[in-house]
Design a protein that fits this description.
Blueprint lengths: L1 E10 L3 H12 L5 E5 L4 E8 L2 E8 L5 H9 L2 E9 L2 H10 L10 E3 L3 E6 L8 E7 L9
Parallel strand pairs: 1-4, 5-8
Antiparallel strand pairs: 1-5, 2-3, 3-4, 6-7, 7-8
This protein binds zinc ion (ZN).
Length: about 140
């Protein structure tokens, strides 16, 4: 089951400048910055009611974010849906014929298990599924 839009991921050139702009725009400061080394990305999170904005800046020239910006410029990079059981949703989407980038969930920023669905199978939008890592994760792993 998909619960809600958990966050929007936005690709930016410079995380410091984007942080300042979003702080002005939203009237709140970033509550967390996190480096996800395996993906060569620096993230910064803002709360917007029950959803979040995730800024993504590249730390390496050949990371997925730098490739995205080179190709499409700064802007919305992905939509993240919060799901109750990420493994179950991945199975369901695969059986529906979606092209999964991650067939097995991986550890993402902000204490989440995440998996991406390829934009080729979703009319051009990269989709992230995420599930909060918590006490009841044991049930689904
Ligand atoms: Zn995300």
């Amino acid at each position: 089951m998909i619960n809600k839009i958990e966050h929007l991921g936005i690709a930016v050139h410079n995380i410091e400048e984007a942080n300042q702009m979003y702080e002005k725009l939203l009237g709140v400061a970033s509550y967390k910055q996190e480096l996800v080394e395996e993906q060569g990305v620096l993230t910064s999170f803002f709360k917007v009611g029950k959803s979040k904005i995730e800024l993504l800046a590249s730390t390496e020239d050949d990371s997925p974010i730098s490739k995205f910006i080179a190709k499409r410029g700064e802007g919305i990079h992905h939509i993240a849906f919060e799901v109750e059981d990420i493994k179950k949703e991945l199975k369901r989407l695969q059986s529906e014929g979606f092209q999964l980038i991650d067939k097995v969930p991986k550890k993402g920023a902000d204490n989440k298990l995440i998996a991406f669905v390829h934009p080729k199978s979703t009319n051009g939008t990269l989709i992230e599924l995420c599930q909060e890592i918590s006490g009841n994760i044991a049930k689904s792993t």
